Amino acid sequence: MLTVFGGIGLFLLGMSMLTNGLKDIAGEALKQWLNRFTNGTFSAIASGALMTILVQSSTATTLLTIGFVSAGLLTFIQSIGVIIGANIGSTSTGWIISLIGFKISLQTMSLPIIGFGVFMTFIGSNPIKHFGNVLAGFGLLFLGIDMLQQGMANAQDLISFDAIPADSVISILLLVLIGLVMTVIMQASSAAMAATLTALYAGAIDFEQAAFMVVGQNIGTTATALFAAMGASIAAKRTAATHFLFNVITALFVLIVFPYFLQVTKWLTEQLAGSFDETLGLAIFHTLFSVVGTILFIPFIKKFAQLLMKFIPEKENALTRDLDESLLKAPSVALDVTYKTLRDIMIHLTKALMNLIKQKKMTADYEKAMYEVEEAIEQTREFLTKVQSVSKKEGARHLCILHALDHLVRLIKVLREQQEVEAMYYQERLMLQWLDTLSSVMDVLHDDEKLLDISKLLEKTSQQMAKERRDKRNEYFQRSVANEAELEEAVSKVEAILWVDRLVFHYWRATARMAEYQIIETKK
User: Fold this and answer.
1) Where is average pLDDT lowest: 250-254, 400-404, 480-484?
2) Which of 67, 80, 223, 317 has its CA 20 to 30 A from that of 170?
3) 58-77 b/e with 16+ CB inside 10 Å = b?
4) In angstroms, rounded to a whole number, what is the distance separating the alpha carbons of residues 37 and 53?
């Protein structure tokens, strides 16, 4: 039994290293792929499947999907297609194990691969280290399967599966439950599938028992997403619900038509292998499970999405609703979501500023908006402290976000100063000009492609305001010297124009940094 536990541990460690290495090598490319090729239902499904096969992790695909939905780059309907595709892609592990894992001496193959991979991680630069992690992970994965084979040879002595033949409802439910529990405990459907394939190969279970356990594992694999969605963003909750309902509904359908499903699986296996190979048959069964679920769901995707959006509605006035900590595992996505949050904060703040200038006083609505913005900035700052950029491009974008956030913090401090209302009266002309500028900005602030044009407009406005501040400051004091105005009034006017100048400057710089973020984002 200890050998089985050790084998599962090595498999999980290898899978983790393999997945992380592949994400580090191709993370940005995968992100661009997902963003570009998910316009239709079938392209979204194909993208989800291909990405999961490449990184060998449906969790990684799910995280990217959640991030893009949160950032507004994918619709929720598109995300359903990607999640369904990820389910199909996750069945690739069973194919790799059944086609390679039981056909060659795994220990002979895996040890040199592990050694070479670890050697690369110690002597290589970052790109070489990532490839080393992939190789070492691949070797550990197959070494784990080798240990599982050794341990499963005696598994029948520890757990008598003969006592639960798949010939009654109670036995079937028990086998499904065993598969579900295996996945929840291991926190990886690929590890549960590897253990099931190995037990089948060792003769500890028969094919029907293994098939029912796979059904349970497909339900159990949703547990991780469900746990992660507790207290998370609306996008995360909807995605977890999609994953759960897709697998549960598919599982119920397969259980109802199980005898026919089994016949189709055996026929396909015989067509591919010439005779019935049980381990290959189980991999086919797993893939067929997800494909049938996809066929069932495709006609109802829009209605399904509408139903979930109705039961899991968006929160009102939640500027930071998309800052889901599960996205920290994908830094590039976390930065995109942070950028979108800053853009929402800017829009919210612009509306509040425009109302302040129009009404020339601080209202309850203005105070509420300011409180929401301050709270959102603080939560965004806390989220950013946990983001760890791993590439040069991510680092550059991360820096832009930090600068933009810093200018927003300074902007809020300016808006909390005493001159906030005084400027409405002492510098009414300038404030009305600023209102016109904000109106122009507000119309296109949500459009990322026009952000650079907005930044240039605000830069010009800031330069004009700086010139106005220099000229007027001297003029006010000269009038005081000439006894044409009271010194106290002159000082108030100077402080007011200085306040307007700083307000416009920080607004411009925050927007300029966000525009710079978009420029870096579009570069290859």
Assistant:
1) 480-484
2) 223
3) bbbbbbbbbbbbbbbbbebb
4) 16
* Domains of the chain listed by start with CATH number: 2-310 (no CATH), 325-522 (1.20.58)
Using the structure block, give the residue that is written with the tokens 């541990």. 9
> What mean pLDDT value characterizes the chain?
80
Structure tokens at 213: 């356990």
Distances in Å between the Cα of 331 and the Cα atoms of 60, 131, 325 are 12, 19, 10
Q: Which residue has the higher pLDDT, 57 or 29?
A: 57
- Which token pair is 50? 């291909």
Structure tokens, 162 = 């003969």
Are the CB atoms for 451 and 518 separated by under 8 Å? yes
CB atoms near residue 273 (< 10 Å):
15
pLDDT of 72 above 70: no
Has residue 23 got a pLDDT over 90?
A: no
First to last CA, the chain: 50
C-alpha 506/C-alpha 408 separation (Å) is 7
C-alpha–C-alpha distance, residues 211 and 219, integer Å? 13
| Residue 276 near residue 261 (C-beta atoms within 8 A) | no
DSSP for 472-487, please give it: HHHHHHHHHHTTSS-H
Q: What is the pLDDT of residue 487?
A: 81
Q: Which two tokens stand for residue 76?
A: 């929720």
Give me the mean pLDDT over the 445-458 stretch: 85
Report d(CA 72, CA 424) in Å as an integer.
36
Name the residue with tokens 């913005």.
373
Residue showing tokens 């994965």: 141
Residue 221 backbone zone (phi > 0: left; psi -120 to 50: alpha; other: beta): alpha
Q: pTM of the full predicted structure? A: 0.61
